[in-house]
Design goal:
This is Cation-transporting ATPase. GO terms for molecular function: ATP binding; ATP hydrolysis activity; ATPase-coupled monoatomic cation transmembrane transporter activity; metal ion binding; P-type transmembrane transporter activity. InterPro entries: ATPase_P-typ_P_site (IPR018303), ATPase_P-type_domA (IPR059000), P-type_TPase_V (IPR006544), P5A-ATPase_N (IPR047819), P_typ_ATPase (IPR001757), P_typ_ATPase_HD_dom (IPR044492). The structure is a single chain. By secondary structure, this protein is of the alpha+beta class. A ten-stranded mixed sheet has the order 22-46-45-44-23-37-43-42-38-39, sandwiched between helices. Strand 26 and strand 27 form a beta hairpin. It is globular, with a radius of gyration of 37 Å.
Amino acid sequence: MKIAESNDNSEKLLSKLLFNQVAFQLPQQVQEEATIAQILTYRSPIYKQLLYYSFCILTCGIGYLFARWNLSLKLALLYSQCIDIEKATHLVITSLENEKELIKIGLKKMQINKSEKQSKSFEYRLYTYFYEDECFKAIETPFQTLTHEEIINNYSKGVESPEEIASQYGYNNTTIPDKSTGKILIDEILTPFYLFQIFSVCLWSIEEYYEYAIVIFLTSIISILVQLRETKQNFAKLRQMTSQDSVENVFRGQNDIVIENKQIIVNKTINNNKQKLSSKAIVPGDLIEVRDDWTVPCDCILLNGSCIINESMLTGESIPIIKNPIQFNKFIYQPNEDSKSITLFAGTKCLEARHPEKGQIPVLALAVQTGFSTIKGQLVRSILYPKPTTFSFYKDSLSFIAVLAMMSLVGFSLTIKDQIDELKEDNTTIFQMIINSLDLITITVPPALPTCLSIGVSFALARLSKKSIYCISPNKVNVAGKITIMCFDKTGTLTEDGLDLYGVRSIGYNHKKSKICFQDLIIDVNELPTPNVQFSMNLTGQNVYGQTKLQPTQLILEIMASCHGLAKVNGQLIGDPLEVKMFEATNFELDDLHNEVFKDNDRIQILKRFDFSSTLQRMSVIVQRNDKLRVHVKGSPEKLRELCHPTTVPRSFHKILEHYSKMGFRVLACGSKVIDSECNRDKAECNLTFLGFLIMQNKLKPVTRSIIQTLQDAMIRTIMVTGDNVLTAISVARQCNLVQPNQRIFLGDIAEEKLDGKNHITWKDFDMNDKVLNPENLSPELDIKDDSGDEFETPELFGQQEQQYEQQMEIVIEENEKVANSQHYENSKSMNLKKSKYQSYKEQEEQLKAENLDHLIDDQDPWKTDQPFVVAISGKAFQLLLNQIDTNPKARRLFGLMLEKAQIFARMKPEQKAQLITHLQKISKKALCGMCGDGANDCGALKAADVGISLSDAEASIAAPFTSKIQNISCVVKLLREGRASLVTSFQCFKYMALYSMIQFGTVTLLYFTLSNMSSLEYFYIDLFIIIPLAGTMGQTKAYKKLTQFQPGSNLISFPVLLSVIGQTLIQIGFQTFVYFYMKNQSWYRSGVDIHKDIGDVDDHLEMEICYENTILFLYANFQYVFQCVAFSIGKPFRREFYTNIYFTLWIILAMLFNSYIFLIEKSGFQDIFMLMFEYESTKNADLNTEIDRQWMYWLYGIMIINLITTIIFEKYIVPFTTRFYRGKKRKLLKRYKYSQNPYLNDQLQQK
C-alpha cells in the first residue's frame, strides 16, 4: 500500500500574489469545515523572539494578551514571512470561512517499501498533510481511486507489514486528545470578558468596595467553574462517543483466501490464523471478522457473506439495512454513492452477520479508512469545528460595547478640570483621579452584560425543551428568529414514513384494438392470477414473456415477492418500508438464509441480487422458479422505460404515470425477461418486457398542510427538497398547499434532445406542455390563466372503481383539512393569491404603524409570492446550471432566477441538497435559510443551513443544532416563534443594560464634580436588587401566540436602536443633570466638599461618598432604572405583553414601591443602611447646618413622574415616527440606485 498520488480531480493551488504561499492538495472527500483556502509560510527569527518576549514583560503581559487574541499582531511581532519552505517553522492556514490558524510544521517519518522517508508535515483539523513535489498533500488511502476489481485483487488477503502501513496512515484511533483542567481554565480566564472581571474586582478592592467586589468575584468564580464543568462534560461525552477500544478478530497476510472465477473464496483453515487485537491497532488493509451485535470499528468493505447494519448513529434512519459483499467489476469504489451498499461505516451496529457456512467460515471486511478519516471521524470534525456564526447581532454587540467603553473617556474628560482644581488644593490625588477614570470604564461596560444577554436564549431553550425540541447550539436560537426561507425534505418530514400499497396497474393485450394497453387497477393483490393460468401474447411473431406464458400480473406478483433487499432479524422484516409493504401484500414468507421466498409449495429462489443504485435508479434480481430463470427489475418509471422493449410499453405510459404522480402516489415500474443462465448486471438489465406499475401511497402527516399554510401566511418562503421523482414531489407539493391551487407549475429538466451536442434545460408547463418559460428571465412566454378548476379527465384510461376511489380520496383530504384547521385553510384558499399574501402583509404593516410598532420589524420587503406560477427543477438540471455559474454568464443569471422562483427541487442528491442551501443563503441579505429533515440525505443540508431541525432521535442530530422528538413539522413554527421572542429579548436586554450603564455613568460623572462617588452598598443594591432581577425576569415573557408576517430587526447598529439608546441616554442624563443643578440652587444645599472639609476627611474617598449629591442622585436614578426597563419591554408582534410575565411585573411593582418608600418616608430606616445624608449638623460652622426640605422631595418625585412619562412617550411615539420618516427617505434614495442583492444576477462572474 502506498500514499495516494495526485489525480485529475485534485488541484494544486499556487499563489501569484504572495511569495510565501505554498501549494497544497486537499483530500478527495474533504469536508467544508476542513477545506483550506490558503497556506502561508513563516519563521520566527531569534531577534524577533527577543523583542517579543521583552515587549510582553515590559507591558506586564498585556502585549501577550493582545497577541493571543489577534493573530495578525502576533505574526507582526514574532514571525517573518519565509519563501524557503525548508527554513519555515510555522504555517498560517486560512479556511473557507476566512479563519486563520497558526500551525507548527513537524516532521513525519514513513516507511515505504521497507525504506524510511522523512518529510515536513502538519495536521489541520484532523487531516494530516506531508510535503512532496513542492506541494503539501493530504495523506489518504488509495481505495477511492481503485475499481472493485483492483481492490479484490490487491487487498483481499490483508496486510503483511502493519507497522509500515501505520507509519503512513496511523492506527485506528479516534480518541480526541484530552484537554487538561489547567489549560481549560487558562483558556477561560484569558478571555476579554473574565480579564475585565478580574480588572474590575481589583479596582473595586483598591477603592475598598469589598462587599461588591466579593460578590462579583464569587459570581465570576462560579461562572468559571460552571463553564469548566460543562466544557469537561462535553469533552468527556465527545471522547466517549469517538473513542472505541474493543477486541477484534483480525486476519493478516492470509494464504487461505483465493480468488476463483471472480469470486473471493475463504477456506475454513483461516480460523487458525486469527489474531485478537485492539480496535486501535487496526490499520488500513486489515481483514476484520464481522460478528453479530458488533460495533464497526472503522470504515470497511464487506468481502464475503452479508450482514444487517443499523446506521441510525450515522444517518438517523432507524431501519436496518442489508450490506452485501463487493462484486468483481470495474466500478470505482465510491463509499458515499454507489458503493454504499458494500461499505460498513465506523460506529454503526452490525445486528447479524450471515454466511451459508456461518460458524466455520468467518464473514470478513476489509478496513479502508481508519481514525478520523472514517465517516464517524467526519461527524467528530463537524462538531469540533462548526461553521462560524455570521449573525450580525453578535458582531454589532461587540462594536456597541466598544462605543460604551469610549463613553467613559468622554465622561472623565468632562470632570477633569474640576478634579485638577481639587488636586491643586490637595483635596484629591493623582492616584485617585486615575482610579476614578478606570472606575468609569467598569460602569459603562457592566460585568453582568454577557450573562444578561444570554437570559432570553436560556428561557427560550427551556420553553422549547418542554415542547420536546432540544438544542445543542444555543446561539442558533436567535438566528431562528430571522429565518425567511424554510426547506423541507418530503418523505418522513412532510409525509408519513410508511408507504401503503395502493394497487397494481399491469399491462395487457387489447384484442379489439390490437394493441398493448394498461389493465384496470387491482387494489387487492390477492386478486392477482395464480401461476397455473396460461396466457399468450404474440408480438412480431414472438412471445415476449418467454416459454412460461405467464400473465404480466403473475410476473408482477413474482417481482413483489422476490425483487427486494429485505431480511429477517428476530422474526421481523427489516429494510426499505416500501419493500416491506410490497412484500407483505403478497403473503409470501422470506427465508433469507437460503435466499428464497415461499408460499405453500411455491418457492422462488433468489440467485443473485443487484442492489438499488441511485445512479442507475433501479434494482434487480435473478430468480429461479420451476426450473425457469428470470430477471426481475423494479425502479424509476423513466429509467425502466429506457430499458424495456419499446413494443411492450403502452402509448399511455406517460398519461398513466402523470395521473398517479399528481395524486401524490409513488410509482415504481416493473420489467422482466427470461434468461438461459446467470449473467452480469449489464446483460441482465436490458431488452426487458414492461409489465406495469406498482403504485404506493405516501400520506401527508396530519399537521403538514396547516403548518405550511401558517408559514406561508407568515411570508416565509417554503421549499421542498427531495430525492424522490419530480412528479411525486409536485403532487405532494400540491397536496400540502406548498403550491397554491391557482398557481401553474413549470418544470425545468434536461431536454431529451441535445442542442449543438450539449445538454440543455427546457422549462415546460407541468400540465400543458405547449406553455414554456423564457430561459432568459424565467417568465412565461404565453399568458397564464387560472385554470385550477380544470379536471384531469381520463374516462377511457381509468376504470370506474378507480374513479370512485379518487372521490373517496377527496373526502379523506377534506377530513384532513378539518383536522388541520380547515376553516382557516379554506378561507385563505379561496382568496386571491396577491390579496391573501402581499396585500395582507401591507394591511398588517399599516396596523402596526397605527399602533406605533412598525419600528420593531425588519426594514425589508417580504418574499413576493404573488406570481401565478412556480418553478420545479430536477437534480440533473440543477447540477447542469451549478457547473456553469462560474464560466457562463447566462447560466449564472438563470441560476440566480431559479433560486428566487423555484419551490420544488426533486431527484436531489445529498450533496446537492447542501449546495442548494448554501446558494439560497447568498441570494439576499434577508435570506436566512432553515432546513427540516429526518434522514441520511438531509444531514449535509441540516449542517449547511442557518438553522437545521432534525426529526431524528439518533446521533445524526449532531449535524443539526435542533432535534425534535415530535416527528412532524409543527416544531418549525414553535422554534421560529421562540427564536423571534428570544431575539427581541436579547435586543431589549442589551438596550436596557446599555441604558443602565449610561444612567449610572451620568450619576457617577456628576458625583465626580464634587469628588464623590456611589457607595459599595449602593452599587450592590442597584445591581443585585434592581438590574439583575429585572434583566433576568424580562426574558420570561413568552413568545407571541401567532407567527406574524414580520421579521424582527437583527442589527444593533441600526437607526431605531441607535435613536432609542442615544435618545433615552440624553433624556435620563438630562433629567439627572437638571436635578443636580436644581438641587444646587436650593437654600438647604451644601457642597459635599465643603461639608467634608468641615469634618476634615476630604482626603478619604469613602467618607466623601456621604453627601447630598450622592443621596439625591442615588434615590432619583433608582426610579430611572425601573421605568427604563418598562419602556424597553416590547410586546407584540413577537412577544406577549410584559404584564403577562408575572414575575417581571411583580418585581417592577416591588421595585417602584420600595424606591418610593425610601424616597418619601423620612425615617424609613434604610437611610442609615445606605449611608444617605438628609441633614448635616456642623460642630464648627453653624452656616453649614442644613436639612433637605421634604416639600422639595415631593417636587422631585413629581419630576420623576414627568421623567417617566417623557421616557414612555419617546419610546412609544417619537422613535416609531422618526424611524418611519427615516425609512421612507431611505427607500426613496435606494430606488434611484436600485440594484439586485442577488449576486448571481450581476454581470461579473465570481472567480474561484
